[in-house]
Structure formats: structure tokens, C-alpha cells
Backbone:
């Protein structure tokens, strides 16, 4: 800054002019006006209350490229010097015309000696410290804003507060959007939680608590049916004589419609009807046979021996004769699946392999013969013969032409006592010794029962417990 009285350059923190002694506080502020390209001249020093002294601003592009234009400073100390020469009184009591003259002289000397006379120095001074001059009051209200690439830091607390508010206003929309997004996510999560706890979870619990209705259990019952048969007595000894008989067979009934049961009933009835028709048509006199030996079924009975929810088993007993001294009795068994109605093997149904079945038969025959020996055969011969044929088809093993056996029939059948093996005539001894039906695999796995006899004779009904009632 500069002294407004003598124009001397002063330090920034000076309180008095070191050249003329004038207090810095009395220095009138300088005014800054826009440069017009030429210095503004002072007009009418004596008449005007203020004199204006201006120096032209010279561009210093070489020295200071960042300065866009020079500043012209109009100092107000000329008018003040003139007024002080006219009005001030010296300390000796004389008018201060000397001061006025001195003031004029000082003004003239200032024009030549003052640093302001050199426009380059003036521009340099204001280029070096433009903000300092304005802060000291050397610049006026009007100034040209300088463009700066980097933003200025606020110099006051108010500016800092305003800048902070401005940044806060820019951040408000982003904060609001983040808050809305978080609120939306929280709302969605809460809605999902409520749906899970209030709707889905109770529905699942209710579904789990509901008792699943089991399929209706099928209840089976057995009705014993019969067919009327006219059986020839003996074409040779009693020609033309016939005997009326009833042949029995089971008819299974289910509490609900079952194709499997219908299939089983059809197989049993068809097999029985075929034999009935053949026996009814058999000749009852020798001359009607044409000299040939004709075997006929003189008696047949099919009995249900076991039933549960999965299988049913029947025992088929028949007596075939060719009009010799005696006929032949054959007992076979057949098991059926209540799910499909197809015949199944009693041995495998009971859980035995063929080799296990042979071993079980040998043990049963041996145990029985130990208490009731054969009348004509040794135990080893009986066991050997039976174990060799026990798994063969009954029609092939009996030697009798059985034309209408049940499909899948075998020498085994299932009863309430367990798996039973039926022997044929002459296998264990003479014809008079008879045939036996032996328990080979007890249901309760009791070894003491192996070899026991099982007697089932043409039952008239069925108890429903897997046991056939005998008559």
C-alpha cells in the first residue's frame, strides 16, 4: 500500500508513513476503476474537493502472463493535500499557505518522483499484491473479477459455512435416494417375512398336520361254491351207474372292485368247470369206451388255505382213475398275487430258494419217518426220491394225465402253519401206506414242528385268519 499524502510505499502492517509521518488510518481508500486504455488526468485541482490522479495500466504480458489487464489506481491524496494547504494552520499560528505550496510542490514532485509516475511500476505493484491492496482499502468497490482455474478456499467463517451448505445441497438428493432404496429393500424384506410367517408357514404346518388318508383297506372274504357232477361208478362192475356229487371251489370277494380278485376267481372256476364237463361226459359202460383205458376225474376239491393282503393260496386235491384196482390221488398247491392276479411260486413267496426248499423237504421227510417208518422203503430211498421230484411239475411227477391243472401248481402250498409239501402215492411206501402232507417250513420257525403232518379235508368255509376250517 502507499501513503495518500506523500505517495511513499508502505509496509502492509505500517501504522504511520515513514516518509511524512501521516497516520495510516487517515489514508483515504483508493478507488479501482476499469482501465480505458489511457490515464485519467486530474482536472481543476483548486476548484474540486478531490483531485484525481490516474496512471495508465500497461499490459505486462511478458512479466506476468496470468494478468489479463492492468489496473488503474486513482489516488485521492492530491485533493487532500490541496485542502490541507488551504485550511490547516501550522503549529506557529500562521496560515499554512506554505504547506499549500509545499503540497503543490509535493504533488508536482510526486508526478515526477513518485513511483506512480512509472506505469510499469504501478502495474507491477498491483500485479504482485492485488488482493493485499484491496484488503488494505486501496481499491474501490468496482473491480474486474479474475478467472481462476482452481476454486478459492473460503477466507471467512461465513464463506466456509456457505460453501458447506452448497455442498450439502448437492448431496441431499443422493442421500434421499439412498434412504429411499434402503427403505424399499427393508419394506420388501419385511413383506416377504410376513408372507412367510403369516401365509406360507401356517399353510405348511396345516398341511403337515393333516392326516393323510390311507387308501381304503381291502377286506377279503371267501365263499365256498360248488358244481354238480355226475360221476360214473364203474363201467365194468356197475355199467350205466352214476353218482351225483358236488365239487367245491372257493370264490374270493373283495370289499372294493379288484381286477386281480376277478382274475383269480375266473381261473379257479374255469379249471373246475373243465373237469366237471369232462366227467359229466365220461362213459359209464365198458362197451362205450371202445376197449380203451379212459382216465376220468372221479373227485376234485379246491380249498383256500391262506390269504392275506398280498397273496392267496389254494390246495387242489383230485382223484383220477382208469378203472383199475385203484386210482391216484394228487394234491397240488398254487399261490396268486392279490395285486396282479397272476400265479406265483409258493416256495419263492415263502422266501426259500430251490436248494433251501429241497433241504427243507429232506429234513421234514427224515423227521417224519423217524416216528413213522416206511413199510417197504428205506429212509434214504424215500428222501432221495422225493428230493429229486419235489420241484417238478405235479402232472409230470404223478404219471397221471392231469389235463386241467391250475397254472403254476406245484407240490407245495402255503397254510397258516407254514409251507407244506404234499407227497404222492407210493413215494413213502406202499399204496396202503398212503401219502402225506408234511410241514417243511413252519411260520414261527419252530424246528420241532418240522415233519408234522397237516390235514385239510375239503373245507366248507373260510375263517378269514389264513386257516381253512375243516369239515
Residues:
Amino acid at each position: 500500500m502507499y501513503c495518500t499524502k506523500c505517495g511513499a510505499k508502505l509496509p502492509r502492517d505500517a501504522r504511520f508513513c515513514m516518509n511524512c509521518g501521516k497516520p495510516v488510518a487517515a489514508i483515504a481508500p483508493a478507488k479501482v476503476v476499469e482501465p480505458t486504455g489511457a490515464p485519467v488526468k486530474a482536472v481543476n485541482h483548486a476548484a474540486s474537493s478531490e483531485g484525481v490522479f490516474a496512471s495508465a495500466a500497461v499490459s505486462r504480458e511478458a512479466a506476468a502472463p496470468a494478468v489479463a489487464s492492468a489496473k488503474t489506481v486513482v489516488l485521492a491524496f492530491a485533493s487532500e493535500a490541496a485542502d490541507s494547504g488551504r485550511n490547516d494552520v501550522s503549529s506557529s499560528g500562521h496560515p499554512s499557505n506554505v504547506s499549500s505550496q509545499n503540497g503543490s510542490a509535493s504533488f508536482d514532485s510526486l508526478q515526477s518522483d513518485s513511483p506512480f509516475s512509472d506505469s510499469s511500476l504501478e502495474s507491477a505493484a498491483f500485479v504482485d499484491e492485488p488482493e493485499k491492496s484491496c484488503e488494505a482499502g486501496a481499491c474501490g468497490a468496482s473491480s474486474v473479477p479474475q478467472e481462476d482455474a482452481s476454486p478459492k478456499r473460503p477466507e471467512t467463517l461465513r464463506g466456509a459455512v456457505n460453501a458447506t451448505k452448497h455442498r450439502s445441497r448437492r448431496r441431499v438428493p443422493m442421500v434421499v435416494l439412498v434412504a429411499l432404496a434402503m427403505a424399499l429393500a427393508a419394506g420388501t424384506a419385511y413383506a416377504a417375512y410376513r408372507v412367510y410367517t403369516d401365509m406360507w408357514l401356517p399353510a405348511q404346518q396345516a398341511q403337515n398336520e393333516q392326516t393323510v388318508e390311507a387308501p381304503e383297506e381291502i377286506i377279503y372274504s371267501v365263499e365256498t361254491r360248488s358244481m354238480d357232477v355226475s360221476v360214473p361208478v364203474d363201467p365194468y362192475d356197475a355199467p350205466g351207474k352214476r353218482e351225483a356229487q358236488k365239487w367245491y371251489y372257493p370264490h374270493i370277494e373283495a370289499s372294493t372292485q379288484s381286477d386281480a380278485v376277478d382274475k383269480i376267481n375266473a381261473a379257479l372256476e374255469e379249471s373246475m368247470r373243465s373237469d366237471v364237463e369232462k366227467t359229466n361226459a365220461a362213459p359209464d359202460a365198458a362197451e362205450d369206451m371202445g376197449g380203451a383205458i379212459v382216465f376220468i376225474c372221479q373227485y376234485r376239491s379246491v380249498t383256500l388255505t391262506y390269504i392275506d393282503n398280498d397273496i392267496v393260496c389254494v390246495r387242489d386235491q383230485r382223484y383220477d382213475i382208469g378203472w383199475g384196482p385203484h386210482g391216484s390221488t394228487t394234491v397240488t398247491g398254487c399261490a396268486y398275487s392279490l395285486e396282479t392276479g397272476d400265479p406265483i411260486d409258493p416256495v419263492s413267496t415263502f422266501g426259500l430258494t430251490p436248494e433251501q426248499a429241497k433241504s427243507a423237504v429232506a429234513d421234514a421227510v427224515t423227521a417224519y419217518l423217524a416216528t413213522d417208518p416206511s413199510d417197504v422203503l428205506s429212509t434214504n430211498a424215500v428222501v432221495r426220491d422225493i428230493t429229486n421230484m419235489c420241484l417238478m411239475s405235479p402232472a409230470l411227477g404223478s404219471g397221471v394225465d392231469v389235463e386241467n391243472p391250475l397254472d403254476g401248481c406245484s407240490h407245495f402250498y402255503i397254510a397258516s402253519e407254514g409251507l407244506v409239501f404234499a407227497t404222492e402215492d407210493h413215494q413213502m411206501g406202499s399204496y396202503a401206506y398212503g401219502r402225506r402232507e408234511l410241514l417243511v417250513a413252519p411260520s414261527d420257525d419252530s424246528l420241532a414242528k418240522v415233519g408234522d403232518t397237516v390235514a385239510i379235508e375239503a373245507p366248507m368255509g373260510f375263517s378269514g385268519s389264513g386257516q381253512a376250517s375243516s369239515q
Notes: The radius of gyration is 69 Å. The longest strand covers residues 238-254. Residues 30-151, 396-401, 459-471 have pLDDT under 50 and may be disordered.
